[in-house]
Amino acid sequence: MIPQELKYTREHEWLAADGGEATVGITAFAADALGDVVYVELPRPGQAVAAGQPCGEVESTKSVSELYAPADGEVVAVNEAVVADPGLLNSDPYGQGWLFRLRLASAPELLDAAAYAALTGEAA
Q: Is pTM beyond 0.85 here?
């Protein structure tokens, strides 16, 4: 199931806005496509990121994929638990597998759950 309260990118990142900050992760669809995640490289706290631009990597037993920022902002926190245990992306991508938090500067128009479901063919 695709969480209804999140916004999504076409590159399979999710964003949960909370006031002027947002939590970012990758979707279950992306985690399933990657297979067993073995390494995660995240942006550093204090780093500026731009919507649609690469800001990290997710490596699995199958491939390496770039992580794209879903919005413009400054990284304020990273999830050290997912760096230590990248498998959290497979087991809990919308919970303990979050990647980083942003202080939002601006956000482009992102997909809602129904639009993301249509993109991926999943149930919303």
A: yes
